[in-house]
Write a structure and sequence with these properties.
Strand content: 5-15%
CATH superfamily of the largest domain: PRD domain
Number of strands: 4
CATH topology of the largest domain: PTS-regulatory domain, PRD
Number of helices: 11
CATH class of the largest domain: Mainly Alpha
CATH architecture of the largest domain: Orthogonal Bundle
Distance between the termini: 64 Å
């Protein structure tokens, strides 16, 4: 393992025998060392490796900008987060979360705080991730003595969601805002409110979550020319008129707010989920498909 760059006395960027770039840390590891020299492996305490080359570059840049203890703290947080979630997380979570936490701690020391306008939406629509965010705040307080504002739990939750869904932070804000808006449309249309603790609500939010992800990533479900598919869409629209009309209202909201057109296939899937949660009163008879 050779030194590619000396970041500071305790951090090196290295290249192993297979050409993989890694960040290695250890007390005095980089003291009076130069690029091209072999690493004293006996001094290595931790190794950080990113498979994606762009992520490896961002990690290298980050380690030169934040305290090492913030990176190590975030590594501990990511390990705990992974233990609580079943789905895989994008490896860049370590980078984005360490960057955010380090900046939040710095802002706290300077007496600056940012409100998260999506805090209530995040806590409602992503309860598991939000609770993980709150747990992270507890660990940060225990390890550093810094008590960050509750809004930070929502910011951390959004970073976790990014890693789950492979989105950017801006996309995650758009996705959450769309869910919020769509639910407002649905509750106004049916003139009633969701039971936020119900399984139906959780299922509908999950559908909206992946629907919004498809929308902002340009992967909307296309309308096929298959005769059976066309017949299926016609039957759903005809036999669930009230719910289909609500799906059209959501489609209009998306068009007016985000200037994106929904396919008929997406409207039909929305209709099916709206029919399932049945905010409109008595259940309709099952469809004979």
């Amino acid at each position: 393992m050779r030194i590619k760059k000396v970041i500071n006395n305790n951090i090196l960027c290295t290249i192993d025998e297979k050409g993989h770039e890694m960040i290695v840390t250890g007390r005095g590891l980089g003291f009076q060392r130069k690029p091209g020299e072999f690493v004293d492996t006996a001094k290595i305490e931790k190794t950080y490796y990113m498979e994606d080359k762009a992520a490896a570059r961002r990690l290298r840049e980050l380690t030169s900008q934040i305290p090492l203890e913030h990176l190590e703290l975030t590594e501990e947080l990511v390990k705990q987060i992974k233990q609580q979630l079943s789905q895989p997380l994008n490896e860049s979570l370590l980078i984005t979360l360490a960057d955010h936490i380090s900046f939040a701690i710095k802002r706290k020391a300077e007496g600056v705080s940012f409100a998260n306008p999506l805090k209530s939406a995040v806590s409602c629509y992503y309860p598991a991730e939000y609770q993980l965010g709150r747990r992270c705040l507890e660990i940060i307080r225990e390890r550093t003595g810094v008590e960050l504002a509750e809004d930070e739990a929502a910011f951390i939750a959004l970073h976790i969601l990014n890693a789950e869904m492979n989105t950017s932070m801006s996309e995650m804000y758009d996705i959450t805002s769309l869910i919020e808006g769509a639910i407002q449309v649905v509750e106004y249309y049916y003139k009633t409110s969701f039971d936020r603790d119900s399984l139906d609500f959780s299922r509908f939010v999950m559908h909206l979550r992946f629907f919004a992800q498809r929308l902002f990533q340009g992967k909307i479900l296309p309308d096929t020319e298959d005769e059976h598919d066309q017949l299926f869409r016609q039957l759903i629209a005809r036999n669930s008129k009230k719910h289909y009309k609500c799906a059209q209202c959501i489609s209009e909201y998306v068009q007016n707010t985000y200037h994106k057109e929904l396919s008929e296939e997406e409207r039909i899937y929305l209709t099916i989920h709206l029919r399932r949660i049945n905010l409109g009163g008595a259940a309709e008879p099952e469809l004979d498909l």
